Amino acid sequence: MNVSVAGVRLKNPLVAVSGCFGFGREYDEYFDISLLGGVCVKGLNVRGREGNPPPRIAEAPGGCLNSIGLQNPGVEAFLRDELPFLRSKDVAVIANIFGGTAEEYAEAAALIGNAADMLEVNISCPNLKAGGVNFANDPRAAAEVTEAVKKAAKIPVCVKLSPNVTDIKTIALACRDAGADALSLINTLLGMRIDTETRRPVLRMNTGGLSGSAVFPVAVRCVWQAAAATGLPVIGMGGVSGGADVVEMMMAGASAVGIGTVLFQDPAAPVRILRELREWCAAHAVSNVSELTGSVQNY
């Protein structure tokens, strides 16, 4: 079950995704999180953030919408209060960072130093120097952030891509050429729901990120395109809810696979998913799960 992503060894390909797992403490009450290959922690910026006002999460067909607003305690509080718990577990720690400028991203990366095993750079954030356009939507801005983080980082850098773009390959290549060691995708799709009784959006901020099984085919497509275009290791995520989904995502090109929204429905889902993955590999005579990566047979 061992896999490697940009030189970071995971005991198995399952990674708890950022935003769905907090810092792991709550889920450790349901299963020993050392079972996982990796934990990607809640998104962090330098100074912390209160997040958006409620309501900020709502059900949607095949998943949920969220507009949490990147609430977090800040990098220093994470290092002091949360990281020691994660380091007591046999699991790779991936620190997710974000910012409003390339300099803020770099500052967060420098503060984390080598305390984590990998950085995941969430570029689905407004670029405050470019009128609020998301870094993830502009190849030049995505490259600028990637390059800034790489210069400040002491550990491998994985850039998290958004599906809300015209051509995922263009963004992926820009990040690779700017020095990204790996990619993770997808982040959520932008969505909206309206309460037909009140005629108001169900979320206070009107729109939110759609996640869950409904987005899985989009995620598979994006992983397939990004992996083929760049040749970089990929952590694939988006709607994964079973062992067969992990297999499919790896066939599309993922080296590891993120588990997210399904955790809200079944907090111990990784136990089941890992069992199903082992059973699939045994039934199909796969002796090394890494053999699955990029094994799709294109027409």
Descriptive account of the structure:
The protein is of the alpha/beta class and 299 residues long. 31% of the residues lie in helices and 19% in strands. It contains 8 helices and 16 strands. The protein has helices at 75-87, 102-112, 139-152, 168-177, 216-230, 243-252, 262-265, 269-283, and strands at 3-5, 8-10, 14-16, 38-40, 57-60, 63-66, 92-97, 118-122, 157-160, 182-185, 189-191, 194-195, 200-201, 208-211, 234-236, 256-259. The strands form 4 sheets. An 8-stranded parallel barrel has the order 3-4-7-8-9-10-15-16, surrounded by 6 helices. The protein has a 4-stranded antiparallel β-sheet with strand order 5-6-14-11, with no helix packed on it. Strand 7 (92-97), helix 2 and strand 8 (118-122) form a beta-alpha-beta unit. The chain is globular and about 50 Å long. The model has no long low-confidence stretch (mean pLDDT 97).
Helical proportion, percent range: 25-40%
Q: Tell me the total number of β-strands.
A: 16
Q: What structural class should be given to the helix and strand makeup? A: alpha/beta
* Radius of gyration, CA atoms, in whole angstroms: 18 Å
Strand content: 15-25%
By CATH, the architecture is named Alpha-Beta Barrel
Q: How are the strands of the biggest sheet laid out side by side?
A: 3-4-7-8-9-10-15-16
Which residue ranges are poorly predicted, with pLDDT under 50 across at least 5 consecutive positions?
A: none
Main β-sheet description: 8 strands, parallel, barrel
The ordered H/E elements are EEEEEEHEHEHEHEEEEEHEHEHH
CATH superfamily: Aldolase class I
